[in-house]
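Tokens in:
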């Protein structure tokens, strides 16, 4: 691989040399700021181009943040932002040092995005060399199933979107699907029968931080159909297959028990749709971590379908509050609205869920209205 080394240079020379030795010993090519010759571009433009040309970034975070550029970020921070989401970043944080406040915030940002998956703490150049060797080896093992075919991943995700509501009543349903790549078997057949997995799925769905099941409803007995596990309530369901593909289905509307028209005219409330999509995205991220802690699935495709919208008006909470019993309805509203599959780094499910839900909701709204 082409590996780009990103860090403050001054005071980190021994650590940078340790990273280079470890990566080159494994046969990788390392590039860093000091490797670039004269160029009409600025040094930072050259480095950012080096990040884009690399297969992976090794990020080394010590005490110093570096001099902010015109963007307000240090060169290392700019390089991280350039790489994040488009290629793997293996981060190594120096311990036993007093970090500058801006560097503390930078470390927190990296830790939040990567979720600790590709982040290690080191205290000496020697421990860093060993940590880099381990991290690169783990990454190579995770990629042995082959590269991610994005077209295949999108097609597999789209195929999991249902075309008809599985429930009676014509209620609007949201289907959020996540499929991972590179394609491989994540769960053996007997794993889908595991009562412990069933309990964990139900517990998180009902009592987790962002639940996707209604705690007032019972849960049906889990069923395995072919290679897919189904756990369902009367109006919601979760499916999981042996390849780690997840589908979360739930009502698009928030309806009070015993009062199906609470809030006036039944409507699709934009903020409720967005929150329900965000909850489903986060749940899928949690479930992938539950079944694939080794991170064999490095990238995911995410898609959403709204079925049964019909002629329900699409309104904001403010619009409902201002006029609960009157709303304009489109006579050509779409029964099915889609957010086409998008391919993302897996970490985005847990740490970019709100932004992804915003984007998906806008696409659904345009089609319904």
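Residues out:
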């Amino acid at each position: 691989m082409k590996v780009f080394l990103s860090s403050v240079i001054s005071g980190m020379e021994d650590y940078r040399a340790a990273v280079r030795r470890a990566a080159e010993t494994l046969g990788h090519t390392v590039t860093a700021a000091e490797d670039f010759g004269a160029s009409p571009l600025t040094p930072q433009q050259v480095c950012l181009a080096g990040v884009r040309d690399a297969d992976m970034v090794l990020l080394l975070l010590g005490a110093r943040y570096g001099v902010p550029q015109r963007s307000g970020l240090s060169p290392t921070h700019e390089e991280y932002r350039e790489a994040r989401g488009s290629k793997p970043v293996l981060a190594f944080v120096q311990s036993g040092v007093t970090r500058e406040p801006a560097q503390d915030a930078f470390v927190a940002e990296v830790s939040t995005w990567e979720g600790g998956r590709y982040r290690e703490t080191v205290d000496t150049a020697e421990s860093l060399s060993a940590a880099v060797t381990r991290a690169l080896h783990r990454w190579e093992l995770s990629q042995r199933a082959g590269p991610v075919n994005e077209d295949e991943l999108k097609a597999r995700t789209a195929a999991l979107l249902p075309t008809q509501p599985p429930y009676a009543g014509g209620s609007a349903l949201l289907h959020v699907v996540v499929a991972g790549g590179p394609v491989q078997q994540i769960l053996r057949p007997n794993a889908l029968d595991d009562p412990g997995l069933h309990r964990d799925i139900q517990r998180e769905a009902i009592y987790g931080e962002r639940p996707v099941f209604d705690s007032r409803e019972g849960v049906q007995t889990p069923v395995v159909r072919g290679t897919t596990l189904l756990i369902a309530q009367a109006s919601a369901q979760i499916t999981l297959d042996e390849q780690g593909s997840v589908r979360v289905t739930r009502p698009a509307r928030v309806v009070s028990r015993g009062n199906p028209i609470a809030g006036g005219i039944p409507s699709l409330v934009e903020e409720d749709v967005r929150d329900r999509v965000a909850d489903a995205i986060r749940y899928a991220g949690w479930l992938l971590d539950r079944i694939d802690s080794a991170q064999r699935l490095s990238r995911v495709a995410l898609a959403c379908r709204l079925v049964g919208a019909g002629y329900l008006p699409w309104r904001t909470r403010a619009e409902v509050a201002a006029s609960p019993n009157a709303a304009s309805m489109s006579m050509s509203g779409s029964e099915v609205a889609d957010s086409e599959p998008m391919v993302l780094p897996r970490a985005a499910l847990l740490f970019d869920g709100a932004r992804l839900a915003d984007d998906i909701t806008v696409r659904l709204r345009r089609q319904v209205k």
